[in-house]
Amino acid sequence: MEQGRVPRKGLTTALLSGGLPEGQCPWISTLGLGLRQELLNLHFLNLGFLPGLECDLAMNLVGQPLVKQQVMKGVREFLENQNPMKPLVMSFHGWTGTGKTYVSSMLIRHLFRDGLWSPYVHQFSPIAHFPHHEQIEQYKENLKHWIQGNLTKCGRSAFLFDEMDKMHPGLIDVIMPFLGPSWVVYGTNYRKAIFIFISNAGGEQIKEMTLDLWHAHKDREEISLQDMESAISKAIFENPQSGFWKSGIINEHLIDFVVPFLPLKHHHVKQCVINELIQQGLEVRQDVVEEVADSIPYFPEEEKIFSSTGCKTVASRISFFL
Fold first, then answer.
1. N or C, where is the chain less crowded by C-beta within 10 Å?
2. Helix (H), strand (E), coil (C) string for 233-298
3. What's the pTM value of the predicted model, to 2 decimals?
């Protein structure tokens, strides 16, 4: 894949987080440029950033306890193992505005000093990088060589695949050899890499299961993670519009964590409004919080329990109510 047509790359190396000051999330400290890969990998294994990630998730991610649980479990177990048998592979699923991109960015920000701009973080968008179906075979070859080349440079690389529901079916399976339990593929040791898939696919199944709980007078957090993982995997595997349609990645169970992002309720949206007001340095006025939250569409149509757009439009709505 040519440099001008690949995911953007940053300027510096991966970093550690520093200590945890009392009452604060930890800061990310700096490593010098030009470190050898062995030193980079050694420092990456330090778990000092985990309290910062956990703190960030607790303070800023609204209404997603299952996500906090799964992401922390996956990252902690993966990094505690100095010789993992396979890369960490996570797949984020849910409706728009529920926090999928937000969490992936947060995770990368705590792992790498320059976050998404780090030279060891690689983002892929179907629309930007794989737009033409007739070129799918060339895309497969490009993608395989891009991942192989970057893992050769740094085994601690991260690869993010956004909008998997828009990916050409069959394309993503070219990376299967990099996701499994083998030690070396194409001459590259890839077991310390992280792969994250982000998709709206499976959102309908998550919505239906959440509504079923509500009709049964149960809280949304009581949902069975095991049942939801099974429903999501089945839905994306059988959907011909999904990038995972009939995918060997699903069939071979190469995804370690299928992470469901639940629909958000009215009080969750209000918390998003409060967070956004604070982020913008604005006064937190209760009338503004209520008006912004009330302006967002909810479903089901009569009961209006869950936000149709999550918190996605909160930031753009605030100015109308000030």
1. C
2. HHHHHHCCCCCCCCCHHHHCCCCCEEEEECCCEHHHHHHHHHHHHHHCCCCCCHHHHHHHHHCCCE
3. 0.85
